[in-house]
Amino acid sequence: TLSLGAYAVVTDRGVVYAPTSQDANPEVGNSLATSATISGGTGGAFTVGVTGLTTGTAYSFKPWALTSQGVRVYGPVGTFTTS
After folding, report:
1. How far is CA 60 from CA 44, 65, 69, in A?
2. pLDDT grade for 51, boundaries at 50, 70 and 90
3. Taking 90 as the threshold, does the pLDDT of residue 28 lie above it?
4. How far lies 43's CA from each of 9, 12, 37, 53, in Å?
5. b/e string for 3-31 if b means 16 or more Cβ within 10 A?
6. Which pLDDT does position 8 carry in this prediction?
7. Beta strands 58-67; 72-74: pairing state
């Protein structure tokens, strides 16, 4: 769950990810990370499809939301390993 603060309106959201060995705490704009933005909707649970993952690689990821004030808010870091 992301805490956006009082009166914040979400204008965009997605997930940012990177191989853990290169960036264990990815953020949008980092040259080692990839950001996937969802299309449509600004509230509730969401799913983002990603491509180009390497087999047998550990990845770190974080959900993010961009507010109408231009503030990007991140959720906690998660990890997964591709099979």
Report:
1. 22, 17, 27
2. confident
3. yes
4. 10, 10, 13, 27
5. ebeeebeeeebbbbbbbbeebeebebeee
6. 73
7. antiparallel
Per-residue pLDDT at 3 exceeds 70:
no
Please count the CA atoms within 13 angstroms of the CA of 5 that sit on its side-chain side: 10
80, two tokens: 């997964």
Q: Identify which of 48, 70, 64 has the alpha carbon closest to the alpha carbon of residue 2.
A: 64
What's the pLDDT score for residue 14?
A: 93
**What single-letter amino acid sits at 72?**
R
In this predicted structure, what is the pLDDT of residue 62?
A: 97
Token pair 């909707």 is found at: 41
